[in-house]
Amino acid sequence: MAGVLRLILGDQLSTSLASLQDCDKDTDWILISEVKEEATYVKHHKKKIALLFSAMRHFAAELSDSGYQVRYIKYDDKHNRGSLFEEVKAATRELELTSLIVTHPGEYRLLEQMQTWHKELDLPVSILDDDRFLADLDFFSNWAQDKKQLRMEFFYREMRKNTRSLMEDDQPAGGKWNYDSANREPLNNEIDIPTPSKFAPDEITQEVLALVEDSFSDHFGKLDDFHFAVTRDQARMVLKRFVEERLINFGQFQDAMVQGQPWLFHSHISFYLNCGLLLPREVIQLAEDAYHDGQVPLNSVEGFIRQVLGWREYVRGLYWYKMPDYKEQNFLKAARPLPGFFWTADTKMNCLSQCIEETRDNAYAHHIQRLMVLGNFMLLAGVHPDEVNEWYLIVYADAYEWVEMPNVTGMILFADGGLLASKPYAASGSYINKMSNYCQHCHYNVKEKNGEQACPFNYLYWDFLERNKEKLGNNQRLRMPYATLNKMSDDKVRMIKRDAELFFKALDSDQKV
Ligand code: FAD
Ligand code: DLZ
Ligand code: SF4
C-alpha cells in the first residue's frame, strides 16, 4: 500500500497536529530533522536551538513509543543533507512514499519554499491548516478586510465570544471586556517572587547541549543553566505552577520591571506554546478554571487570557494577512544600523544593559522589557526595521517570524504606519523609572532632561517626536505630547536637538554611550 511522508517541523511538536491525524502506523512515516538551513537562516540564540533539538528528540521518541514509524535525522548525522527539502526528498525516495503531508509552517519564507515542492518532488504535497491556533486565517481576513483600522481589542472581543472564554451568557465576566487599568503597578519590595520552574538536563538534553556548544559556538547567548522544559509533561508542569503560584499577581505586576528579577509573575510558556508542547486552548482553560474556583482575581485572569487569546492570535492573523508586504514596511524611514551594544550589553544605560544581559543569559525577557526598554530605544534611535527584526528573531527562544515581526514592525517601530497599534510606544526615562528600579543603579540621571548626565531617553523622546512631526503630528493619541512640544521654547528645542545629535554621533562612532 502507498505510504505517506508526514513532515513535522521543530515548532510543530503536538500530537494533535493536523498532519498527524489519520496517520497509518503501518505504511506512513514521520520525518523530523535537525537541519543547518533552519538552524542558521538567522543565528538563533544557543538556548533556542538547544530547546528545539532536545524537544524534537523527546517528541520523536514518544511517537516511536506509541508505534509510529519515525525517521529522525540528527544534526551531526554523517548523511545529514542540511535542508528540509533535501531530507524530504531523500525520505520519499528511500522509503518509497508517494505523497507528502505537512502542517502550515509559521514563516512565510518556508511556506513559499513548500509551495514549490510538489513540482520538484513530482509528488502530491498537502499543506494543512494549523488548527492549533484558535483563529483560522480565513476568520482573521474576513474580520479584517472591510476595516480601515485593525484594533486588537475588537478582535479579542470576537474571540471571547467565539470561544466562550470568560463569558457570562453573552456578556463579559464581571461586566467589562478589559481590566488593564488595574494592571499597571510597579513592584514593591514586600512581595515574594516565586522561583521559576527548572528542569535538570537529562541524557538527551546533555547530548544536545554538547552539540550546540560545538556546532553553534559563534551564535549569540549563553548555554549555562539550561533549564527549559523539553517534553509536554514538563511544559504542563510549568503551566500548572504558573496558574497556582504566579497568576494571582500577573495582572497587577504585568508591566513591572525589577533589576535582577527576569521572571517576575509572568508565565514563561511562550517557548512551549510556540513549539507545540502546549496548546492555547488548554492554557486558557486552566487559567479560567482557577478564576471560577476563586483562586485568582478577574483582572489577572482577564489580563492573561487577553495575551493568549487576543494578542497571540491577533499578531498571527495580521502576519499572514499582510505578508509578504509587511516585511518591507518602514513608515518612519528609520535607517540607523543596530548599535553594537545590543550584542554585548556594553552601555552606560543601565536599563538597556540589564535587559540585554538577561536576554543573553536566558533567551528570555518579559514583554515590558522587550517593548518599553529595548524596543523603545530602537524606536527613538531610528534603527532600521530589518536590523531590529533580525535581532529579535535571533535572541529569544520563543521567536518565530509570525509572532516576532508584528511585534517589532507594528508594535515597537510603528513601521506599518499604525496598522497594529494606534500610536508608537515611545516613552521618556520617567516611564522606565516609574515601572522599574533600573534608574537607581544608572550612570545617567533620569531627572535631568539635558546635558551630559541626563538620561538619554529624555531628550531622545522629544527629538523623536520633533523629527517625525510631519508623520505623527496629527495622531490624535499624541495630541498631548505634541501640545507640550509645541509650547517649548526655541532654546529648549535647540538643547534637545543638540543632545540627541551628540548622542547619535557617539553611538554611530562606537563610543560607549
Ligand atoms: P506572559 O507575559 O506570561 O504572557 C502570556 C502569553 O501571552 C505569552 O506566553 C504569549 O504566548 C502571549 N503573548 C503576550 N503578549 C504577546 C504579544 N504581544 N504577541 C504575541 N503573544 C503574546 N512573543 C513570542 O511568543 N515570540 C516572539 O518572538 C515575541 N517577540 C516580541 C518582540 C517584541 C518587540 C515585543 C514587544 C513582544 C514580543 N513577544 C513575542 C510578545 C511577548 O513579549 C512574549 O510573548 C512574552 O514576553 C513571553 O513571555 P511569557 O510567556 O512569560 O508571557
Ligand atoms: C527554529 C528551528 C531550528 C533552530 N531548527 C530547526 C530544525 O533543525 N528543524 C526543523 O524542522 N525546524 C527547526 N526550527 C523551526 C523552524 O525554523 C520553523 O518551523 C519555521 O521557522 C517555521 O515556523
Ligand atoms: Fe535607563 Fe535613563 Fe533610567 Fe538610566 S536613567 S536606567 S538610561 S531610563
Task: Give structural notes.
With 513 residues, the protein is mainly alpha-helical. The protein has 3 domains: 3-128, Rossmann fold (3-Layer(aba) Sandwich), CATH 3.40.50; 138-203 and 224-322, Alpha Horseshoe (Serine Threonine Protein Phosphatase 5, Tetratricopeptide repeat); 341-508, DNA Cyclobutane Dipyrimidine Photolyase, subunit A, domain 3, CATH 1.10.579.10. Helix content is 49%, strand content 6%. It is built from 21 helices and 7 strands. The protein has helices at residues 36-40, 46-65, 84-94, 108-121, 137-144, 152-163, 203-215, 232-250, 270-275, 280-292, 298-322, 341-344, 350-362, 367-381, 385-395, 401-412, 429-435, 456-467, 469-472, 479-487, 490-508, and strands at 3-7, 29-33, 70-73, 97-103, 125-128, 167-168, 171-172. The protein has a 5-stranded parallel beta sheet with strand order 3-2-1-4-5, with helices on both faces. A hairpin with a 2-residue loop joins β6 and β7. α2 (46-65) packs antiparallel against α7 and α14 (367-381) crosses α18 (456-467). The longest helix has 25 residues, at 298-322. The protein is globular. The model has no long low-confidence stretch (mean pLDDT 96). It binds flavin-adenine dinucleotide, ligand DLZ and iron/sulfur cluster. Flavin-adenine dinucleotide binds at residues 266-270, 273-274, 307-308, 311-312, 315, 366-367, 370-371, 375, 392, 396, 398-399, 403-404, 407-408, 411-412.
